[in-house]
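Field log, afternoon session.

UNIT: design team B
ACTIVITY: writing a sequence onto a fixed backbone
BACKBONE:
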């Protein structure tokens, strides 16, 4: 035996439209339904775009200007959002955990570290330096290494990446 009630809608009796007011009311109802449908379509599309695989912005995609020897540098760091910077720092931390100690020790929150890297790149001479090298300099400073020794290391890095 087949159950005909599954998925069946109650049948709406046809109401005759006797007046212009009835027609206008019905037309307004249809317009409202169409507007709601369009709004739901737009919201769905916005969610789809928001959840789609992110594409890199040409300003932050590694290229000759914002990467040095294939490594993200200051020109690539500065246009990044705070969230992108924190993701990058998290990845650097994970790499250190997996591949061994790179000598990066900070005692800072991710946001504080992201701000320290941004401050490092305020000096235009540091822009070509890879972020990983900026992190090494910040780590040396945080460890209390003498400023002349930190400056010497920075000069060596600048020569290397000119």
């Amino acid at each position: 035996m087949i159950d005909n009630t599954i998925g069946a809608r109650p049948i709406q009796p046809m109401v005759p439209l006797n007046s212009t007011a009835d027609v206008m009311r019905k037309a307004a109802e249809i317009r409202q339904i169409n507007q709601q449908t369009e709004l739901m379509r737009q919201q769905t599309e916005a969610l789809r775009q928001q959840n789609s695989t992110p594409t890199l912005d040409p300003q932050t995609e590694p290229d000759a200007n914002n990467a040095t020897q294939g490594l993200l540098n200051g020109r690539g760091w500065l246009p990044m959002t705070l969230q992108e910077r924190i993701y990058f720092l998290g990845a650097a931390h994970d790499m250190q955990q997996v591949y061994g100690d790179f000598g990066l020790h900070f005692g800072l929150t991710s946001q504080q570290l992201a701000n320290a890297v941004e401050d490092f790149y305020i000096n235009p001479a540091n822009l070509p330096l890879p972020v990983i090298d900026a992190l090494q300099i910040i780590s040396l400073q945080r460890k209390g290494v003498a400023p002349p020794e930190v400056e010497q290391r920075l000069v060596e890095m600048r020569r290397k990446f000119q």
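LOG NOTE: Residues 41 and 47 are 10 Å apart (CA to CA).
NEXT ACTIVITY: expression trials, pending approval
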